[in-house]
Amino acid sequence: MNIIKISAFSDDDRGGNPAGVVLTNAMPSAADMERAAANIGFSETVFAEMQHDKNNWRVRYFSPESEVPFCGHATIALGAALAEKYGDDRYQLSLNEAEISVQGMRQGEQYVAALQSPPTRYTVLDQLQIDETLALFDYQQSQLSEAIAPARIHGGADHFVLALNSVADLASMSYDLNQGRAFMQAHGLVTIMFVVIETDELFHVRNAFASGGVLEDPATGAAAAAFAGYLRDIDWSNNDKITIIQGEDMGCRSIITAEYGTELGRSIQVSGATRKLG
User: Fold this and answer.
1) Diameter of the chain by CA atoms?
2) What CATH code is carried by the domain that includes residue 212?
């Protein structure tokens, strides 16, 4: 099995979130994909099977411990791999639960990619859900920003998002991996996202990813899509684009751009640069 290693949402030639990419004419068995994802050890590995032509692919995503319905950074890595192999183009992707697309383009010595996410939705968390989440991370209610209500957000996968008051609060994020895994599985979550608002358009983010057996994700495109959809749907600002800085506290600074229109629930365009590993 040939696994291409690409870091998505990189900051020029640094940072980003590594993903494995497998391009194939015959999808491996689930057991083989699980084994390959565990062996490579990245937060996600994407498996793409060509359908009737090079522009149509059946896609599945595996973390080291589980299959997930959608992964943004692995999709960006896939877009770069497809552009390198087949040329700049838009590629149609059939996921387990959605139909999406990714556009891959060469830009100088790098490849950039832009995905169009599944539709988005959100529900505001109740106080019990907020209290349980804060307790898991040993945060206090006073550390939450009142600017954005804690919510369950969806853009192909489910996440909790909570806004904190300061980057110091964000930097202190910690939790027990096993407790986090149990919590996320019980609530049907892929990640728990903490954000700090720098401006209406710029956010600093950390994403706990215990559901996939990973303490933290340095760049989470699916959560970025869900979060951008949430901001649009609550009429956050007059802007139609946000930038997310993630992975700084891990030493893997990543840059994610999310763009959206005005129609509630519509998909989000998430884009970023990539760099090839190894």
Assistant:
1) 55
2) 3.10.310.10
